[in-house]
Amino acid sequence: MKKIIFFVLSIALGMFSINAQIIKGDMNDDGTIDVTDANGIINTILGLSSYKYLEGVGNPYMIDNSKVVGTWYKTKSDFFTLNADGTTDYNGAATYKFLPYQGVIMFYNEQDKPVSKINVSLLNEGYMLCIPMETGVLTILTTTQPKQQVTSIQFVLSTLSLQLGQEMPVLAIVMPTTADNRVVTYESSDESVVRMQGRTAVAVGVGTATITCRATDGSGVKATCKINVNPKDLSGTDANGREYVDLDLPSGTLWAAWNVGANAATESGLYFAWGETRGYAKGESHTFNWKNYKWMTPGHSNEKYVTKYTVADHILDGVWYKDNVYVGTVVDGVTYKDLSRLLPEDDAATANWGDEWCMPTTNQIYELKDSRYTTTEWVTVNGVSGRKITSKSNGKSIFLPAAGSRYDSKLSNEGYDGSYWTRDLGLSSLRGSSLEFDDSGIVYFELTSRSVGQSVRAVRAK
């Protein structure tokens, strides 16, 4: 048997009509009704006959034991049974007796001693109005199992954080498990941030939305949780432990955390001539000039004799022109024309770090320094000066050391200037496009002689 916890008779029982002022005057602050106040209330609810019965006047309408036989429900889970043979599971009692002329159901233990009683006020077909001795509270019992409504809903997590584009089930616990209708709905306060697909939250925009889970059984029970949607963060490391940073840029470009040839963000790394894959450390002997430049016509040291990467730039005395007509250049028997972007085999990032990496394009550099997406500041990290570039949307940043540049055999402006190659030519066949910055706060593009040694900051290859 499940012991009954009796509750206060509701004003809105559906089958009764009651004067609100009487109830208000007789109810206690906690919503209960004292037995001493019951007679007047019963008379109001049920009429004069029941009142007279409680006073011992009139012919009682409870005739025989069969009126109380059966299972009586207060709720779907709170019930007890009175059997025709006088046995019962109510309150642990062994037997019961119905005393119709007293309006009492008495319960006895196994030693035939009375242990409890219920004062019955009204017993009609299908329901019983009574006052159990233990509670002194008016209670309605029915022979029909009532519906069990949802009493509570609770989200497993009250706050969630998702990345843009992420999907995640939003789990809510519906109680009790015996509720007749445990179906719930989920809705978002802002579908431009989170859209619900059943119980799955789909992050469609950066921001915050409140998810409401509602019962559909008419109980009005609901619960809420908050979902914060953050920009997608694809930062990570490659198989060799090289880190890359997602600055949440429109192109989705992922920037390496340090220079090619370095092992930390504050290291200068190697210096490369544009289009060369062999780099040199700052203390390593090498002369960066046209004579030593890889893409130079053999036997020459003049920039007008560069090969492979050339465009129709109207530099008519360059070897890529013949009789004032652009013809390109021949390298190892292959003619190259209008080749303005480094091929993978001549890309310093790809050659040194693998196919997952490449040097940035001019457009990627423009985007990196675009004030709509990033902020830039001159900082010193572990004694190394350089430019810190920070995403406006997700707060991630990269640090570009002011590693200077190498002209001939000298390293110039280390600690004051930063020069970083792109993989694109700069308008002419003689110059590569590069990102330049200094301690004045200026970040700009430079068209630099291809033979100069500069830093390379890689990006993840698409």
Overall form:
rod-shaped
Report the C-alpha radius of gyration, rounded.
43 Å
Largest sheet: 5 strands, antiparallel
Instruction: Classify the helix fraction into a percent range.
Output: under 10%
Strand order in space, largest sheet: 3-4-5-6-7
Discrete helix count: 5
Question: In summary, what is this structure?
Answer:
The protein is mostly beta strands. It contains 5 helices and 33 strands. The longest helix is centred in the first third of the chain and has 9 residues, at about 40-45.
Plain-language structure description:
By secondary structure, the chain is mainly beta. The protein has 3 domains: 20-142, Lipocalin (Beta Barrel); 152-230, Immunoglobulin-like (Sandwich), CATH 2.60.40; 236-460, no CATH class. It has helices at residues 20-26, 38-46, 48-54, 348-353, 362-368, and strands at residues 70-73, 79-82, 95-99, 104-108, 114-124, 127-132, 139-142, 152-155, 159-163, 167-169, 172-175, 184-188, 194-197, 200-203, 207-215, 222-230, 236-237, 243-246, 254-256, 321-322, 325-326, 329-331, 334-336, 357-358, 374-381, 384-391, 397-401, 405-407, 410-412, 417-426, 428-438, 443-449, 459-460. The strands form 12 sheets. Strands 3-4-5-6-7 form a 5-stranded antiparallel sheet, with helices on one face. A hairpin with a 4-residue loop joins strand 31 and strand 32. Helix 2 (38-46) packs antiparallel against helix 3. The protein is rod-shaped and about 130 Å long.
Topology:
Elements: H1 20-26, H2 38-46, H3 48-54, E1 70-73, E2 79-82, E3 95-99, E4 104-108, E5 114-124, E6 127-132, E7 139-142, E8 152-155, E9 159-163, E10 167-169, E11 172-175, E12 184-188, E13 194-197, E14 200-203, E15 207-215, E16 222-230, E17 236-237, E18 243-246, E19 254-256, E20 321-322, E21 325-326, E22 329-331, E23 334-336, H4 348-353, E24 357-358, H5 362-368, E25 374-381, E26 384-391, E27 397-401, E28 405-407, E29 410-412, E30 417-426, E31 428-438, E32 443-449, E33 459-460
Parallel strand pairs: 9-16
Antiparallel strand pairs: 1-2, 3-4, 4-5, 5-6, 6-7, 8-11, 10-14, 12-15, 13-14, 15-16, 17-18, 18-19, 20-21, 22-23, 24-33, 25-26, 26-27, 28-29, 30-31, 31-32
Helix pairs in contact: 2-3
